[in-house]
Amino acid sequence: MSYLEDPGPGRGSLPPRAAFTSDAPALPLNGTWRFRLSPSLAAAPAGIERDEFDDSAWDELPVPSLWQLHGHGRPAYTNVLYPFPVDPPHVPSDNPTGDHRLRFDLPPDWPAGSAVLRFDGIDSCGRIWLNGTELGITQGSRLPSEFEVGPLLRPAGNVLVVRVHQWSAGSYLEDQDMWWLSGIFRAVTLLARPDGGIGDYWVRADYDHTTGLGTVRVETGQDVVLDLPELGVVGHPAGEPLELPVEPWSAETPRLYEGTLSTAAEQVRVRIGFRTITVSEGQLKVNGRRLLLRGVNRHEHDPRTGRVVSPETALADVLLMKRHNVNAVRTSHYPPDPVFLELCDTHGLWVIDECDLETHGFEPLGWAGNPSGEPRWAEAYLDRMRRTVERDKNRPSVILWSLGNESHTGDNLARMAEWVRHRDPTRPIHYEGDHDCAYVDVHSRMYATHEEVERIGRREDDNERRRDLPFLQCEYGHAMGNGPGGLLEYRELFERYPNCQGGFIWEWIDHGLAADGHFAYGGDFGEPIHDGNFVIDGLVFPDRTPSPGLVEYAKIIEPVRIDADAAGIRVSNHYDFVSTAHLTFTWVLEDEGTAVAQGVLDVPTVHSGQNAAVPLPELPPTGGESFLTVSASLASATAWAPAGHVVGWGQLPVSAAPAVAPLPPRGPVFRTGGRLVLGAGEFDPATGTLTALGGHTVQGPRLDVWRATTDNDRGGFPGPPEAGRWREAGLHRMQHRVIAVDADGEELVVRTRVAPPAQPFGLFADYTWTAFDDRLRLRVEVTPDGEFPGTLPRLGLAMAIPGALGSAEWFGGGPGEAYPDSCQAARIGRFSSSVDGLQTPYVYPQENGNRTAVRWARLTAPDGAGLRVDGEPVFDFTARRWTAAELEEARHTVDLVPGELVHLTLDVAQQGLGTASCGPGVLPRYRLVPQKTDFTLWFRALPGVSAAGASQNVS
After folding, report:
1. Residue from 425, 259, 275, 431 nearest 344 by CA
2. Strand-pair category, 681-683 with 675-678
3. Measured between alpha carbons, how far is 346 from 226 in angstroms, rounded to an integer?
4. Percentage with pLDDT > 90 across the chain
5. How many CB atoms are closer than 10 A to CB 44?
6. Which pLDDT score, from 0 to 100, does residue 918 have?
7. Closest Cα partner for 858 from 623, 677, 655, 593?
8. Tell me: the pLDDT tens digits for 228-240?
């Protein structure tokens, strides 16, 4: 059998051990290698392992790298389907094969003796030679392999050769909803191994929360001593338990004690975090406290280098997570680069460390032939689990081992769990695919509905084993495009039921690849089988810009919550461990969105799980609608954020908007020059449509119900997609019929019926215009006619205004976009932006940019001339330089070409977002069902500086 089709774990490598560095010599072998890509193994050149082989005509390739991202072959994306015939363990003969060669010299002081060659990641299979001698075969792409090479080394002219194959038997175990990319994509290092050195170690550091004592013992070789200077430990025999008072490690207080393990030959720097993980009373606990996991799933991704993720990028991820209140990471669906876990130790993140395993492509086949139940794959499964655990066993941040993802169930998974339980009984075992929880320690689900979470919380499960375990959502809140919606209701369930311990948003980052002016997704590289933009489903964009979804999630999971209380202000501490002593509370009073007073709020220390009532500060009187915003921010800088970083905030209404002043007399409607004139407005006499306001040419406003569909609108996870129903109903091509235009007296009344072609149902829309000095008042009454088949995308008005009016200012919800089930992060204030800046650049264009609860908005040219719209009392608006139809048709951001107009929507309601791209749809309370509705807006033209002689006030 060819090594490519061997279902075993590879051959020749050393037993797995912990990832660590020491003071022994090490030689990084990253850099520029010679490279040649062949279309198959048969076409690959022979003799590449020989010293004299001539590679001078080969290309150069950086290592680490993935060759498809350097012009050799093309990336391909699938979520579930294997991009090759499912005939395990066989792989296609057309199997791209990348040969890598490196010549290197040893440093002059390199010691003789044992040395280990370490590969941290080769995708998918590597055959390795050093100086003409074959070392072995690697499988398990995201796992390390080490080889003894000491006797083979020479002072100069070493030749390292690695033949990497895109497909191998291991590919059947690596169907992990990501780009299929190939190469040596993690570090390559030569490590000297001194006689009498430290070959491996395991720090066992437990914490007893009842006594405050920690116990440390290190499983390692003989004659190893432990030094922990902070604790006064010097020269302690590492294998002997040591009990002493310590500060525990947690994600909130990631206390690490730095020290060393030493022999006469080698010293290893260690960082020890004391904590104890238990499952008791149906809850997952650390140091005796129940955890609430506010997590994300993290693939490793860089838009230019793919799964080659630099330490700087890994740090950027950790800092972004911490600054957005994320406290946990599931390493979907493989162990990350070891640097990431070290950063989690340092900065404080709970980690589910997941094995490099997924066989999802067998699900469409009814799981027939799935390796999870096939004995010939047993050793490969166990090998992957061993390498995961042994590599990461010293990481205090790792609190759960995960057997893998979406591989159904079978004896091989059960054996993995058995091995883990024997090797490391200190960490519980996770695997969502064990639906009966026969061999796991936590009950895990993906995309459980709110109703299902409620049932689990009430312990209404018929399965007794599941009923008594902690529950978490290893994936929920699918963050594809605009969304996710409905996260607040999940949080409420997690807090209501002690056994429901949170979960992990799918997922952290959009996997877009950098292209010409945009980011590419599945299908953009000509793949015959692909899953489109399903790989664009993250809380941050490919360039790691936070999406509105991340801002919303950060608000929902904020560890300090500030609300109105009968006594004034209620401050609630939702941290798992720490008090609020590290926070400063400040307040600002805004009158009509303008700050008029601010100060520091005296809040007593609030302990975890507690709350405190605080009186309102002394506030000056305000003349308009005013709000008090209270923020909790870091009093001092931390390793992950500066002093002043806000971890939570709340907003309280202080005074309502003043009563409306008596209206002046209404102006008359009159006809002149073939048009209707009412106040500052000009109207088409045949349609009653506004055509100009104060000299500005406009189109509309007219009733409109369509929005460019979102990924969640198009999602069919819970049933037929809403977008499909809307299109079937014809809501994207509504037609307007004018029933009557009554232009007599002091009102312009336009009666219309708005309906789709080929359908009997529609909406009566009556527009009543009146003029009061320079303002126009529009009352819109909407009455459904006939039986609509479902929901509406939105309900409001659409109009177009001159493109010169490119600046927006508003008093209302902001600063970012918001929708009915995703609006917790919107606060009431006064905000400004360019029209271009109002857009959210989703990789796959879709509805975006809605500002909610708007009291007034104005759009102006550079000279201040423009239009102002006021609500009675509020409305939502978007403003963009393309139509909803153009937004709907676009597939990449570069498809959106600004036009000559600014297109406004002025809405009374929007359908929620939900998570139907992969999860439940819009909750009933956020569904926009057609019903009789009326709303009122006011319009006014704003003169420019030259016309008014001075800048205009927005009041």
Report:
1. 275
2. antiparallel
3. 20
4. 97
5. 18
6. 97
7. 593
8. 999 999 999 999 9
Query: Closest by alpha carbon to 688, among 767, 782, 781?
Result: 767
CB atoms within 10 A of CB 660: 8
- For 357-368, how does the pLDDT look when each residue is reduced to its tens digit (9 = 90+)? 999 999 999 999
Q: Is 708 helix (H, G, I), strand (E, B) or coil?
A: coil
Per the CB < 8 A criterion, the answer to whether 130 and 51 are in contact is no
Write down the catalytic residue from 266, 300, 342, 475.
Answer: 475
Whose CA is closest to 344, among 324, 319, 362, 369? 319
Alpha carbon 36 to chain centroid distance? 36
Nearest to 548 by CA among 292, 326, 297, 818: 818
- CA dist 242 and 236 (Å) reads 8
Q: What is the DSSP letter of 480?
A: -
Mean pLDDT within 839-847: 98
Please state whether beta strands 257-262 and 267-272 pair in parallel, antiparallel, or not at all (unpaired).
Answer: antiparallel
Is the preceding omega at residue 873 within 30 degrees of 0, hence cis? yes
Q: Is 475 a residue of the active site?
A: yes
The 10s digit of each residue's pLDDT in 69-101 is: 999 999 999 999 999 999 999 999 999 999 999
- The 10 Å Cβ neighbour count of residue 665 is 9
Extract the tokens encoding 682: 């000009």
pLDDT at residue 952 tops 70: no
Q: State the catalytic residue, choosing from 49, 146, 390, 406.
A: 406
- State whether the Cα torsion 57-59-60-61 is positive or negative: negative
- How big is the CA angle at 341 (ends 335 and 346), to the nearest 5 degrees? 170
This prediction has a pTM of: 0.97
Q: Which of 371, 331, 375, 339 is nearest to 355 (CA)?
A: 331
* Contact in structure between 123 and 204 (CB atoms under 8 Å): no
Q: Is 406 a catalytic residue?
A: yes
The average pLDDT across 383-398 equals: 98
Q: What is the pLDDT of residue 660?
A: 87
What pLDDT score does 946 carry? 64
Tokens of 159: 């030749």
pLDDT at 661: 87
